[in-house]
Amino acid sequence: MRMTQLLDHLPAPGEVVEFTLGATLAPRPHEVPASLFQQGHLGLARTNRQAGRTQSPWVALSFELPGRADPGALAEAWQGLARRHEAYRSWYAHEEDGTLRGHLLPAEGVEVRVEKAGAFTDPRALRQHLHRRIDEVTAAPGPGLLAGVILRPHSSTVWCAIDHAYTDGHSMALVFEEIRERYAAALRGEEPALPEAPGYLALNRAEAAYAAGLTPHSPELDTWREFFATADGGFPAFPGDLGHDSDELLPGTRLSLPVFTGTEARAFRAHCARNGGGFAAGMFAALALVQRELADEAAYRVLTAVSTRASPRDLRIHGWLVNLVPLAFTLPGTPGPDAAVPVAQQAFQRARSRYDVPLHRAVELLAPAGQQLRIPPMASYLDGRSAPGAADYLDREVRMLTGPDNASGVSIWFNWFRDRAELVVSMPDTPQAAVSVPAVLERAVAVLRGAIGAGPLPPTADPV
User: I need a labelling partner for 379 at 20 to 30 A (CA). Which of 34, 77, 95, 288 fits?
Assistant: First the structure.
């Protein structure tokens, strides 16, 4: 699976058919509060719209089907998916006073409408159309899902986009697998055999109750208290010039760096295991070592993403079920990544153990009176090798697409798939960052590859 901005991707042209969600029954209001992440996301989107700022707060997915796809079968597949999953038939909308009100469509009231958007011969015109339509549909009140297919004689591109408030990377992997299964069943004239999927609103309700019970003295906040306990209350800056030094959001950009081939990634995992840690610990150790090398800072602190799906049953839930947790450790005096891996492993395990403490609630409770704590940088690790359908990512050219970024600092995603491992980075689109960020990350890649005695990636390696 590739992660890239839509504006960096040129889809092959063809005839475009779109699938939009409609309703034969009226939505009903519900009183389940939005999650704290949803509140922040939807509030920022509302502020940007009111200020006239362009924003594309959605996540998109695309993949290939062989031959000319059947739009009718795809419409049936999307309708089945939207009816099965609460995330695609529910939404939150702001009232006039700014409060968020929840709405839910009954499953039997969801219908998919098929609309022909025309044939495109220019890939740039096609990309512009997709961007405009995705922005329109995902920003409008109502279910924030738009899907479609680009039809060609020998292959077809299936795509969908969803407001990020109602989806995450795990959900999009589930969409890829379920749509293919539903499409194949529709072509056979059958119903797919899929188990009932729980809804995410129950998890929203549980989060609200748990967060309300936390106090500044709750032991669950110990890792956060230690994380914020610094002399100046700040955080180590990215060890490179970003062209600004504030929390102001600037237009952002992304870059991707290949790190390992599939074989090398497995060798790196074995190397980390021999040194008392896992693949993620090796990544954090390398980033910390580069920070010490370039900024003379041995204390490494970062936020890392974890899923809040706590049980096997929860793995079937679609929604934005992610939290950011504090990871902190101090590098040992012994140089090199081998000594740093076990320290990073302990920090990673401790951070993940508090997956259920909401970031926004921790910051709210621990911020000094009258002050707002600055949110630190993020580095996230994803092992996508066992995701549903992962074996087909390469053959089906599966892509995770985003709209144009906004960024104040550097956010890093380290993704491990069956054929490769890569770094994907979001950063401010400034001349200074365009020089410093690649230099820092190339040094991190050199440390990672050096840990297993690998030299530069060969020219035949698949660049991202």
Answer: 34
The first and second tokens of residue 155, run together, are 């292959």
Q: Which residue has the higher pLDDT, 336 or 126?
A: 126
Q: Which position has the token pair 């009258």?
A: 370
| Sign of the dihedral through C-alpha 201, 204, 206, 208 | negative
Nearest CA-CA partner of 456 in 446, 443, 441, 464:
446
pLDDT band at 396 (very low <50, low <70, confident <90, very high): very high
Q: What is the mean pLDDT of residues 269-285?
A: 97
Residue 386: pLDDT over 60: yes
* Alpha-carbon span 224 to 123, nearest angstrom: 47
Percent of the chain beyond pLDDT 70? 95
Which 3-state string (H, E, C) describes the chain?
A: CEEEEHHHCCCCCCEEEEEEEEECCCCEEECCCCCHHHHHHHHHHHHHHHCCCCCCCEEEEEEEEECCCCHHHHHHHHHHHHHHCHHHCEEEEECCCCCEEEEECCHHHEEEEEEEEEECCCHHHHHHHHHHHHHHHHHCCCCCEEEEEEECCCEEEEEEEEEHHHCCHHHHHHHHHHHHHHHHHHHHCCCCCCCCCCCCHHHHHHHHHHHHCCCCCCHHHHHHHHHHCCCCCCCCCCCCCCCCCCCCCEEEEEEEEEEEEHHHHHHHHHHHHHCCCCHHHHHHHHHHHHHHHHHCCCEEEEEEEEECCCCHHHHHCCCCCEEEEEEEEECCCCCCHHHHHHHHHHHHHHHHHCCCCCHHHHHHHHCCCCCCCCCCCEEEEEECCCCCCHHHCCCCCCEEEECCCEECCCEEEEEEECCEEEEEEEEECCHHHHHHHHHHHHHHHHHHHHCCCCCCCCCCCCCC
- Give the model confidence (pLDDT) of 32-91 as tens digits: 999 999 999 999 888 888 888 777 889 999 999 999 999 999 999 999 999 999 999 999
Model pTM score: 0.93
- Per the DSSP assignment, residues forming a β-bridge with 151 are 15
Q: Which residues are within 8 A (CB) of 447 and not within 5 positions of it... i.e. 6 or more apart?
A: 286, 289, 290, 337
Which has the minimum average pLDDT: 98-112, 138-152, 322-336, 374-388? 374-388
Mean pLDDT of 105-109: 95
pLDDT in tens, 199-220: 999 999 999 999 999 999 999 9
